[in-house]
Design brief:
alpha/beta, Rossmann fold, 3 domains, six-stranded parallel sheet, about 20% strand, thiamine pyrophosphate, 3D-(3,5/4)-trihydroxycyclohexane-1,2-dione hydrolase, hydrolase, thiamine pyrophosphate binding
Amino acid sequence: MTALRLTVAQALVRWLIAQRSETLAGDEVPLFPCAFAIFGHGNVLGLGSALAEYPDRLPVWRGQTEQGMGLAAAGYAKATHRRQVGVVTSSIGPGALNLVTAAGVAHANRLPVLLLPGDTFAGRAPDPVLQQVEHFGDPTTTVNDAFRAVSRYFDRITRPEQLLATLPQVARVLTDPADAGPVTLALPQDVQAETFDFPEALFEPRVHRVPRPRPDERALAEAGDALRKARRPLLVLGGGVRYSGAAGRAVAFAERHGIPVTETTAGRTLVPHDHPLHAGPLGVTGSSSANAMAAEADLVLAVGTRLQDFTTASWTVFAPEARLVTINAARFDAVKHGALAVVSDADTALADLTGILVGWRAREEWSRRAAVERSRWDAHIDALRAPGTDLPTYAQVVGVVNELSTPEDYVLTSSGGMPGELVGGWRGDGVSTMDVEYGFSCMGYELAGAWGAAMARGEGLVTSLLGDGSYLMLNSELFSAAFAGHPFVAVMCDNDGYAVIARLQQGQGAEPFNNFYADCRSGHAEPPRVDFAAHAASLGCTVFPAEDLEGLRVAYAEARKAAGARRRPAVVVIRTHPTSWTESGAWWEVGVPEHVPGYPEHRDGKGRQVRYTSS
């Protein structure tokens, strides 16, 4: 067997380059199309030197924060439907720990990213080294052990030959529809530089095709029997439908059997907005139309969703007696809440289920309800988008962006109030053209994730919508994108603080405190304000301030042109109304105090006695 003498870092990079992936369209692409790196103590010489050998085969992009790079990799994975994986490397101490939040985002959203933090010396001879955190009772523990809680697969490479065993597992997790998520390989800096005779076969090109497991015939038959007995079935489409490439199959399934369709946050834009069976998005950030259908459904067929609390309205959106049937590649998700579980690829299971439901359709009056309910929700959104307030609302901002976007464009957001506006109010014509990171709801993803999505997408324009709080928390990757030449548009809505969490705080009876700047402690009678337009311009972005709704229309149209022409982000800055929101009317369970002195008793939405005043 032919062997190549390489350092661990060189072997790892060569292996990364050799891995290939198959897209939903059947095209062959690199599994690892790019790397994000901030070099420092622990990765600059080993892995850094190895990456420098192949600048064209594994392009390296430099970010400004490790968290931002990790979020960009997550945005890249989402934009490629988990068919391609960004690689992120960091130094050994604070650089590594800065990546942990991004790992949490990828883990919560089931997105594959490969994290390669440097680590302390495996040999320990020079300990304690710069940036090392010493554990008095366990010298094997380093800061990288923090990744264990937010990794699907974790390993620390302490000997070169360990790569032979761990790299196949790395590829398995990153391409498995059930296990997909972040993989962390901690790389001690001395081991990165050690040589070993690696078998040449390790570096042969390998195409990783995402498996499509077929359903168990008995489980499928039970699901078919349950559907045939249903009087008011409802189809819920989640992110797994997107990653399976099953949107077309799901819509055809609904059409063949007359089943109303709703979408989760991760499943948004799988169904054309105006489809007659589309009831709208489901849950807290969804629509009253879908929630009304869910309340009356006697069977819920949930496909490719982990049934998060915002989707289920903390498990109040469905009728208590409704039968839950799930199709999911992950058994962990399929069996939730005692569901009749069909463990399978979404596209495969829907095709097989169609075969055993020949001749069956839901009742016509139930099928027609979807369009009726959604038309009411559409009228509500139209009213919210109509001009009339002194400051533009989030709903109006979304309306402008929606109107001027094309079906090929991609819209993105994460935290605060914007997820409710995009999930509930967006009207999409394309398929899988929205990324709302609401698994971890990470402030700052709106800009870093947009950078990754802009890198990944070959058509259309990426537009990110965010508030001033997210902008201030993590804006550095605007410069990364501007420097690298990856254009997108960011619409930054300034409502003077953490407005949506203030809504939760005050809506549940608490006093305003520490969210809006007006309610924050300051040593100034007139505290300073951020000049967001000047700041974004200083980061290399083209900036378009807007004063009102019509100004926003002009600014966004110009920003779209400028982003592509100048190959850098274009930022639209506008002041928005701080307390106007799109509401679905759904319940959300939060931890409110059982007793607040001075407030009268009443009962909450689940009949429990509490002692605060809630709106």
